[in-house]
Structure formats: structure tokens, C-alpha cells
Predict the structure.
Amino acid sequence: MPAASPSAVRKDLEQGHAASLYLIVGDDDAEMSRLAGDISALVEDELRAFNLERLHATDKSVTPSSIVESARTLPMLGTRRVVVVLHSEKILKPKRRGKTAEALEGETDDAEPPSDLDVLEAYVKDPSPETTLVLVAADVDRQRKIYKALQKTGTIVECWGLGGGRGEPVDLRQTARAAEQLVKNAVAKAGMQIDAAASRLLAERAGADIAKLRADLERVLLYAAGKPKIALEDVRDVVSAETSQDDWAVTNAISRGDTAEALRQLGLALDAGGVSYQILGQLAWFVRNKMTAADPRRIRPAVEALFRTDLELKSSGGDPRVLLERLVVDLCRR
């Protein structure tokens, strides 16, 4: 069965048609997350506590057997249960000691030893009609029996961003055109316009990295909020290819009320491997120890913004980068 597009799946959902199995695979994390959220919306808000379960395959407690157990659980009070398994590549493309990725992909079905995965494979072949199981993965091993079973009984959705597809050579011109079109569509959806040179610069800085393009675009939209048109200078103010060595660059920019620089430095810190909770802790220290003395009137809204961001980070209420960027903008307001 050929892969379905995200738009085709959404159209099916709008018409009330939902599959029992979805495999969402690719490198466009934002699109994959949105699609998983759209499928999760099959469960009524008031029943989500009972009939919607989000699992992380990176958790030690989450195994193929526990996934099947959750999927086999009958819905309560409603007619459908949705189980979303994030980071499913840990299960669908596991690393094996002493073998390279190339060697693993060259193996045949006969070489695959019995494992706990057999339980999930059996479920894939005979899924529960009351449950929609959504597996979200960065990649999968296409030689495994479970993938071939998913091809027969499930809906596979590929979200490969700007690269065109897994393992395909990147056409730089085509990638640039796709990136510029994505920027224009997102800006139009936000009710704004953007200069051609500005959208081109965003595309050039991102290259084939869809995650970087979306992150840069979110920062620019946040920075230019309220403007009718995004100019080239707005993009230059926010998006930078430089690296930062100053651990306090974000808070220093906030103390000056320099939103553009604070967002730029936050992006540099995250791109360099900064941990969202550590950055949040640093911002909390800044509010407690610096903002209190500088401007007491800003403390209450700043603390509220900190608590909101902390709660959303812990509950997976959005992209950590976007949540921190919104917090930085709030803290920069005087």
C-alpha cells in the first residue's frame, strides 16, 4: 500500500473515517506532532482522561507488550480509544550491538530472532477495531516483518520535510523552492505578508533542515507580531548562523528589553544542545534575583509566565523551543 499524505489522512478524519493503525514516519517533527494531535482529536475532550493514552517508547516501562495491552483495553463511555506511541523508532528500528545500520537493513526476515516484538507484530496483523494505534517514528527498519505487516493492515504516512524522502538525494533548488513556499504559506496563515528576500533568506539559512526552518520561522513570526509585513531586516535581526559562548546572553538581552537579541541567543543556546529545563531554571533565577530589584511591577506576570511554561513543558503542551521563545518575549515586555 503506498504511503498516504498528511492532508489525505486529515480529509479522511474530517469525513469520519479513521484507520485502526497509523505509522507516522519522517524528520518533520512539527508536522508529525500535529497529525498525531489531529488523530487524537477523535476522542472527545471530556473522555480523553479515559480513552487517550500517550506513550514514549524511550521509557523503560514501555515495551511492545505494554503497547499491545494498552491498545487492547476497551474504551470507557465512548466508542473509540486512541493510543499514541512517540519515539517508536526505538522499537521499529532498534540498535543491535556489534552491527552497523547498513548490516541491519541487509538482513532478511529469517535472520530476525524471536523477541517481544512478535507480540506487537501479532497485534498489527489483527488490530482492535475499537482502538486507533498511532506509531510515531523518526525512521523504521523496512526489512523487519512488523513493517511489512504495517504495510498490509495500517496506514503509513511519510513526513520527510524538505528532503523529498528517506535516502533520496537532495535537489537543492527543489528544496529551496519548497522551503520558500512553506514560509509563504505559514506567514499567510498568520495573516501577514513577507518580502521575497526575507523568505529566501529563511530558506537559505535552513537548507534541507525542516526543523531549523520551522524554528526560525516561529521566531520571526513571534518577533514581527503586529506588523503587516515581515521585512528582510526582521529576519536578519532574529535568525543567525553564529554561535554564542556567553551562558548569560539570553538573560542579559532580557534585562535590556532586547527581544530580538534574546530570541537569537535562545536559539543559539538550544542549537548548541542546551536543555530546555536548564534554560527555564536560568530564567527563573533571573526573575527571582534580578527582575525583583529592577522592576517589581513585572514580577507577577513574569512568575505567571514561568509557571505556565513549566507546566506546558512537563505536560508536553507544545514544542519546548516555541514555549521558551514565548516566555522570553513575555519577559522582555516592559
The radius of gyration is 22 Å. Residues 6 and 157 are 6 Å apart (CA to CA).
